[in-house]
Amino acid sequence: MNKIEQLMEKYLTPFAVKLGNIKGLIAIRDGVSLAMPLIIGGSIFLIINSFPVPGWPEFLATLLDGKLSSMLNHIVNSTFGLMGLIATFGIARSMAQQYNVDGASAGVIAMSAWLILTPNIITDTAEGVPVSYLGSKGLFIGIVVGLVSAWIFKSFVLKNIVIKMPDSVPPAVSKSFSALIPGVVVFFLAGVVALLIDISPFENAHELLATILAVPLGFIGGTLPGAIIVVALNSLFWFVGIHGGNVVGSVTNPIFLANTDENRLALQAGKELPHIITTQFFDMFAYIGGGGAVFGLAIALLFFGKSSQSKAMKGIAVTPNIFNISEPIMFGMPVMLNMSYLIPFVLAPIVNVLITYFSMSVGLVHKTIGVAVPWTTPPIISGWLATGSWTGAGLQIVLILIDMAIYLPFFLAADRAQRQGLEI
C-alpha cells in the first residue's frame, strides 16, 4: 500500500498540478463558469415550462393562447441559449487576466471575433445571428476564439504595440485606445479565416470545427468507455488532493454542457432526447455526494461507524454531503491519500456510470431532459428534476445503496482498525 501511495505521489500528483495550472484550461473553466448563472437560471424556467407532471405542458399551452409557454421558452433561449457567446467573453477575459492585462477589452474583442466567424441569416425583411449558434453549438468556436484572441491581445499589450494616451486621459478611454491595434488584428484574422471557410466546402467555422472534433469528442462525450475514463481520472485526481472536477472538468465540461443543451432543445421541440451522457448524468448519478460517489460512504459512516473518530465525523461529514459537499469526508475521514479507500473511491462512480448508462439506454430510466440542476441539490430531488421522472429518483436510491455496499467492507475495516488503535 505504501509503495502504491508513493508512486501516486511521485507521478500522478505532479502531473495533476501541472495540468491544473495550464492557463488555457483555467480560462476555459472560468469562462464556462461565467455562463453558469444563465444556465441554471434558465433551467428554472425550463422546469416551469416542462414540469414533470402529466398534462402540465398541455395546460400551459392553453393559457393566454399559448403566449405564456412561448415566453417561458423565450426566456430559456435568452439565458441557457447564450452559453456559447458568454463563455467566449469569459474565456478571453480569464486568459488575459492571467497575464495581468485588461480582461474586459480582451473579452469584448473575442466576442466580436466570434460574431465575425458566425454566419448571419439574411432574409428580405431582416438580418441576424442564428440563435442555435449562440448556445452550445457555438461553445467550441468560443473556446478557440477566446484563447487565441486573448493570446494575441496580451502579446501586443505586453510588447507595448499599443496606442498610448497621455496620463491626463481617463483610464477607461486609455484602455479603449490600447485595445485598438490588437483588436484590429484579431478582427482582420477572424475575417480572413471566415472568408477562407466560406469559399471551402464547409458552411462556416462552427461546422468545420464540429467536423474536425467529431471523432475525439464523440468518444469522450458520447460513449460509455469515455465516461468511465472521465470518472476514473476524476477520482484519481481527487485522491491525491487535486480537485478532480476542476482538472478533468476543464476539458470535458464544454462537451457535456453541449450535450445537455441539445437535450434541452430536443425537449422544447418535442423530439427524442439525443444524449445519455450529459452534465447531469455525472453530477446527479455518477458523483452522488461528490467525487468518488462518497454519499455511500457517508451512509456507511452514519449507520455503522463505531469508533470515536467515526462518531465525531457523523454530524460534520454527513450533513454537508447531503448537499454533495464532499470536503469534510475527503479530508476528515480521511479519504484523500488513504489507501484503504482507493478501490471503492474509484470503483463506486464507475459502477454508477455503468448502471445509469444501461438503465437509460434500455429505457428503464428517463434520460436527463437538459435542466441544469444545481450540483448542491440533494439526491432523489435532483434525480427527479434532472430526468423529469420518478425513475431518476428511483435510480439514485438504488445507486446510493450499491455505493454503500461497495464502501461498507472497506469502511468497517478502517473503523475496526481505529477502535483497536484506541484500545492499544
Helix proportion range: over 70%
Shape: globular
Question: Secondary-structure element order, as H and E?
Answer: HHHHHHHEEHHHHHHHHHHHHHH
Q: Classify the beta-strand content into a percent band.
A: under 5%
Strands of the largest sheet, in order across it? Answer: 1-2
Rg result: 24 Å
Low-confidence spans: pLDDT under 50, at least 5 residues?
none
Main sheet properties: 2 strands, antiparallel
Tally of DSSP helical segments: 21
Distance between the termini: 23 Å
Structure summary, number of beta strands = 2
Description:
The protein has 424 residues and is mainly α. It folds into 2 domains: 1-22 and 223-424, no CATH class; 79-221, no CATH class. Helices cover 72% and strands 1% of the residues. It contains 21 helices and 2 strands. It has helices at residues 2-20, 23-34, 36-49, 56-62, 67-77, 83-98, 103-116, 131-134, 139-158, 171-178, 180-198, 205-222, 224-239, 244-269, 279-286, 295-304, 308-322, 327-332, 342-361, 381-387, 390-423; strands at 121-122, 127-128. A two-stranded antiparallel ribbon has the order 1-2. A hairpin with a 4-residue loop joins strand 1 and strand 2. Helix 12 crosses helix 13. The protein starts with a helix and ends with a helix.
